[in-house]
Structures are given as structure tokens and as C-alpha cells.
Amino acid sequence: MYICEKLHFNRFFMSLMKAIFPGLLLVLVLALLSFWLSGFLPIGAVVVGISLGIFFGNLFSVKETWLSGIQFAEKQILAWAIILMGVKLDFNIVKELGFKAILIIIAAIIFTISISLILGRLLHINRRLALLLGIGNGVCGSSAIAATEKIIGADKHEVGISVTAVNFLGVIGMFLLPLFAKFMLVFNDLQSGFLIGNTLQAVGQVVAAGFSINETVGHTATIVKMMRILMLTPIVLTLLYYFHQKSKKQVVVVKKQGLPYFIIGFILMSFIPSFHLLSPDIIKVLGKLSHYLLLIAMVAIGLKISFKHIIKQGGKALLAGSLIFLFQILFSVLMIVLLIRK
User: Fold this and answer.
1) What is the spatial distance between Cα 231 and Cα 65, in angstroms, rounded to a whole number?
2) What does the alpha-carbon distance between residue 211 and residue 171 come to, in Å, rounded to a whole number?
3) What is the tens place of the pLDDT at every residue in 138-152?
4) What pTM does this model have?
5) Nearest Cα to 43, choosing from 183, 169, 223?
6) Angle between helices 2-38 and 64-72 (to 10 degrees)
7) Average pLDDT in the chain
């Protein structure tokens, strides 16, 4: 009996691997190429990956035999990327910030997401895409979009457009914000670090912009950015509550199946750094693994995005994202001037 069950499992596993291998291999090759190319470009590997996936998927026809592997990367690998993303959330960072600073960060995130919904309505952008742009700008770029896109029911086109727009704006901000803070606003190191950490989207952008001024600014910006990342957990839980309350059908699904496993895993993994359950070296490895898995998933998402949809929605999304980013900066400047003294 045991031997028969083992043989049945082996056949199932081999047939599954045979089905997903061609598409998964394509995704992995493009992900490796993206990682290599990102070393020569001023943008992150995730943005290069989704862009490369979009170009490949539109320049070459995606074969039927590739679809299973691409879908596996888009759904299953993305879920594991989100779970492992939790190890980047060390709640002990709260100790390094004062109560006033934490309130400013929370207020800025709420303001950014709110203004994204208002601008989305004014520019006739659907609510899901507007929300992704707000979350991406307000919290932590691609990671925040990946962690919330399934909850709000966004499709692959909306994810691709929001990731591209948010990261493109972040790259521009990485070069301009240090100049804006030091020479136009004449902020001190604390204020400059707070502005950079409270507005730029990706950790890499924050580190690069902050340390381009000096170490004090870089350290301050990084701490503020970490606090913004910590806000991803309450945002995820808030979105789960809102969307499940909004749809009776979704409420039924939650009662039958519980919360999505990747959200539960994401929250549980955040306990590891917060309570020092593993060594810093292992946590660092898990964090890198999360980044690589996210890169693979974004390549897969890019492969299924149509140029026609980007042309149709991309212009408005970039305009909305730019305005959201601008309002986000202005709000942070106002809070810093009023509450963070020189």
C-alpha cells in the first residue's frame, strides 16, 4: 500500500514538474538576466525584471507549454516572496523613533493613500490601480504592491503599471530629493534624513539618497524608512477587513478558508526579527531570498502584460503617480517644518 502511494506521488510530481518546467525555466533565465542588468542600471532588479518580462512577452509569442510554469511563478512563488518579506519587519526599530516622528510617518502614509484615491477619481483611474499607486508610494514600493495586490483584487496589468510607475518616480526622487532638501529647503541633517526616508519608495533608493549627503542623513533616512515598512502589516490587515466587509462573497470565502496563507505567514515571519528568534545572518539570507523570489514573480507577471493595456492606462497612471509623489513630498515638508525643529 505504501509503495503504491509513493509511486502515485512520484508520477504526480514528475508530471507536475514536466508541466511547469518550460515556463519556469524561461522565467528563471529572464530573472537572472534582470539581476545582472540591474548592476549596470540605476534601478532595482525588480523593475528591470518586470520590464524585461513585458518586452519579451510582447515581442515573442508565449507558447502554451510555458503558461503553467509562468502561472506557478506568478502565484506560488509570489506567495512565498510575501511570506519571507516578513523577516524585514523588525518592530524594535520603533524604539529609535520618538512618538512625534511615528505620528508623522503614519499621517503621511494615510495622506498619501487618501490623495491617491482622490486623484484616481479625478483622473478617471480605476480604484484598484489608484490604491496600488498610493500604497506603493506611501509604504515601500514593489513589496507593498506585491503584498496587497491579491487582497484588493488587482489584475496583472494594474500590478505591472503601478510597479513600473512607482519605481520610476523613486529613481528620479533618489537624485533630486537630496538637492531639494539641502540646497532649496536648507534642511539640517535630521530634517533631510526624515524627508528622504518618509518619501522615497524603495530601501535602496533611501540608502543611496541619504548617504549621498552624509552618514547622519543616511542613518536617519534608513530608520524612518524601516518604520514605514513596519506599517505594511496594519495596512494589510486593514485592507483585508475593508474588502472582506465590502463583499459578502468574500466574507463567505474568509469564513470557510480563513485568511490567505501568505498573509498569515507574512505576519508570523515578522516575529522572527522582532523577538530575535534567528541569528541576524539567517534573517539576512531569508530577506535576500524574499527579494529574489519577488524578482522571479515580477518577471512572470511582466510576461502576461500587454503593451496595449500599458499604452491605454500607463500615461494616466504615471501622471497620477507623479502627483501622488509630489503631494507626499509637500505633506512631509510641511510636517517637518512644523514639528521637527532645527
Assistant:
1) 40
2) 15
3) 988 888 898 888 888
4) 0.76
5) 169
6) 90
7) 83
Total of domains in the chain: 1
**Among the residues of the chain, which ranges form H helices?**
2-38, 45-59, 64-72, 78-85, 99-122, 127-135, 141-152, 156-179, 189-197, 203-211, 215-230, 232-246, 248-257, 261-269, 271-274, 280-303, 307-339
Asked whether residue 8 is domain-assigned, the answer is no
Per-residue model confidence as pLDDT tens digits over 240-284: 888 766 654 444 334 444 456 777 888 888 889 888 889 999 999
* Cell numbers at 230, concatenated: 513596519
Q: The cell 480605476 sits on which residue? A: 126
14 in any annotated domain: no
Contact present, 223 and 97 (Cβ < 8 Å): yes
How far, in Å, CA of 19 to CA of 299, rounded?
19
Secondary structure of residue 97 in the 3-state scheme: coil
Considering only residues 213 and 41, tell me which one the structure prediction assigns the higher pLDDT.
213
Residue 335 covered by a domain: yes
Q: Quick one: 37 exposed, middle or buried, by C-beta within 10 A (0-12, 13-18, 19+)?
A: middle
Lowest mean pLDDT among 58-62, 188-192, 233-237: 58-62
Coil/strand/helix, residue 336 = helix
Domain membership flag for residue 12 = no
Q: What are phi and psi of 154, to 5 degrees?
A: -70, 145
| Separation of first and last alpha carbons in the chain | 76
Confidence of residue 225 (pLDDT cuts 50, 70, 90): confident
- The boundaries of the domain holding residue 318 are 20-339
Amino acid at 178: P
